[in-house]
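Report of the visiting student (M.T.), summer placement. My assignment was to run the structure pipeline on a short list of targets and document each run. The first record concerns Plasmid mobilization relaxosome protein MobC.
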Amino acid sequence: MPNRQVEQSIKLGANVNQIAKYCNQHQHENPDYDALGRNINAVRERLNEIWEKI
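After the run finished, the C-alpha cells were exported:
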C-alpha cells in the first residue's frame, strides 16, 4: 500500500475512534444524530474510496 493510502487509512481510523468516543461519552444523553450521521457517511465515503484504490 503506498504511503498516501497508509496515511489516509490512519486518518480514517482516527475519525472512527472519534465517533466511538462521542458515542461512549454521550450514551446517556440525546446525541446529535444529524451530525453523527454526517460523520459516519463521511467515513463510509472515504472507506469506499480507499477500497477502490486497493
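The chain has two helices and no strands. The chain has one domain: 3-53. I thank the supervising group for their guidance throughout the placement.
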